[in-house]
Amino acid sequence: MPHTVHLYTDGAAKGNPGPGGYGVVLEQVGTGYRKEFYEGFRLTTNNRMELLAVIVGLEKLKNPGTEVLVVSDSKYVVDAVSKGWVFGWEKKGFKDKKNPDLWQRFLKIYRKHKVDFKWVKGHNNHPQNERCDQLAVFASSQPNLNVDAWYEQQGDKLL
């Protein structure tokens, strides 16, 4: 499918769990339009930030049915969707799965668009992936980080 938007994403955590952040680069193909987003949290995990980056990027799209290519270095996210695991998890109510709050949020926005995923090796000089990594690390190192409320309430049950 010809993608009209390329969505590059990355997540980071200093410690796992620890302070974390995500970075997103959204590019509209053929127009030169480019936008960056990032946010940091005081206590979270790398996988939560990887998934949240994809969610936030998709939520920024204004037109339902947008053809999107998500480019991520997260096997956790890319494989869960590309291999269909998340749909099985959903059928089982996400029983014994990590990050059910984010996976449910992901599926809601995922179904509004036409989304493909591409995995890229992290820290391999891919310009947009490197930029997302910089944004995620920057976001995680800011003062007064946001609270990942679901994780902080559930986190001790997950560790």
Describe the overall structure:
With 159 residues, the chain is an alpha/beta fold. The chain has one domain: Ribonuclease H-like superfamily/Ribonuclease H (Nucleotidyltransferase, domain 5, 2-Layer Sandwich), CATH 3.30.420. The protein has helices spanning 46-59, 75-82, 85-91, 100-110, 127-140, 149-158; strands spanning 5-13, 18-28, 34-44, 67-72, 114-119. The protein has a 5-stranded mixed beta sheet. Helix 1 (46-59) packs parallel to helix 4. The longest helix is centred in the N-terminal third of the chain and has 14 residues, at 46-59. The protein is globular, with a radius of gyration of 15 Å. The relative contact order is 0.25. The model has no long low-confidence stretch (mean pLDDT 94).
Which SSEs are present, and which pair or pack?
Blueprint: E1 5-13, E2 18-28, E3 34-44, H1 46-59, E4 67-72, H2 75-82, H3 85-91, H4 100-110, E5 114-119, H5 127-140, H6 149-158
Parallel strand pairs: 1-4, 4-5
Antiparallel strand pairs: 1-2, 2-3
Helix pairs in contact: 1-4
Task: Name some characteristics of this structure.
159 residues; Nucleotidyltransferase, domain 5; 5 strands; globular; five-stranded mixed sheet; alpha/beta; 27% strand; single chain
Brief write-up:
This protein is α/β, with parallel strands linked by helices and 159 residues long. Helix content is 40%, strand content 27%. It has one domain (5-154): 2-Layer Sandwich (Nucleotidyltransferase, domain 5), CATH 3.30.420.10.
| CATH superfamily placement | Ribonuclease H-like superfamily/Ribonuclease H
- Provide the residue-averaged pLDDT: 94
The helical percent reads: 40-55%
- Helical element count? 6
Q: Pairing-aware structural class of the strands and helices?
A: alpha/beta
**Biggest pleated-sheet summary:** 5 strands, mixed
Q: Shape from CA axes?
A: globular
CATH class: Alpha Beta
Low-confidence stretches: none
Number of domains: 1
